[in-house]
Design brief:
The chain is mainly α. It has helices at residues 3-24, 28-40, 43-64, 71-91, 97-120, 131-148, 152-162, 166-190, 196-222, 225-244. It has one domain.
Length: 245
């Protein structure tokens, strides 16, 4: 397939997945990952391209929605996820990526299904996520993000329980992705992986990213808080299925 056709298909994937992240505050990288790998035929290039695009999207919302960031929760999230990232960067070179992603996909699928069920069938009493379990989600999310740049689902399982407001949730998540992906990009620069060829691909994909941001903004404003939770957990369910397949 000609390069231009491949990039157009990648652009379509970028538009759809980044529209979803502009609505919910997460999901673009992990949903786009398998499709972009299949199209580009290179896991490393796909990871770098999607990390940079996700960083740009997150930075946009950090700048434009700065006042909605929940700093207390953000501090907890970035501390524990940040502790896990160095381990993930080391594990990326030594673990079987396929097995790890399938196992993680099963866990995310089951967790999302339970949360989605709860959003449709509200319980008579409210039970918050146990602190120790939430902290384990954050630490594990940092490890997976360091390895594959797709640790978001585990972090979202914690954050969706602690930050119920949809605007605050999205802004806080985007600040986290901006910081975590900055760490990844520093690693890419030090390892000289941001090549001119990847730069050209990013410039080609930039309009698809911008279109996704504006489409997501329109949808986000029209979604109620209850529907937002259902969209979040449905997205996580789709993420789990994608990672298993």
């Amino acid at each position: 397939m000609p390069v231009i056709e491949i990039l157009l298909l990648v652009g379509l994937v970028v538009f759809i997945t980044h529209t979803l992240e502009a609505v919910t505050g997460f999901g673009c990288t992990v949903l786009a990952f398998p499709f972009v790998i299949a199209l580009m035929g290179d896991l490393e290039i796909a990871k770098i391209v999607l990390s940079v695009l996700a960083w740009a999207l997150a930075l946009y919302f950090v700048i434009t929605k700065y006042k909605q960031i929940q700093w207390n929760q953000f501090g907890i999230i970035v501390l524990l996820a940040g502790l896990g990232m160095p381990a993930g960067m080391l594990l990326f070179r030594n673990l079987d990526a396929a097995i790890l992603k399938k196992a993680l996909g099963v866990f995310i699928l089951l967790s999302a299904a339970i949360q989605l069920y709860k959003s449709f069938v509200p319980a008579t009493g409210t039970r918050s996520l146990p602190k120790w379990l939430g902290y384990m989600f954050l630490l594990s999310g940092g490890i997976v993000h360091g390895a594959f740049a797709i640790g978001g689902p585990l972090i979202v399982l914690y954050s969706s329980n602690k930050i119920p407001d949809k605007g605050q949730f999205r802004a806080t998540m985007c600040l986290l992705w901006a910081i975590l992906n900055t760490v990844l990009m520093v690693q890419y620069v030090l390892e000289k992986k941001l090549t001119p060829a990847i730069g050209y691909e990013l410039l080609f994909l930039l309009p698809f990213l911008v279109a996704g941001i504006f489409a997501g903004e329109v949808i986000h404003k029209r979604v109620s808080e209850i529907l937002f939770k259902k969209v979040v957990f449905s997205s996580l369910l789709l993420v789990g299925i994608t990672m298993i397949i």
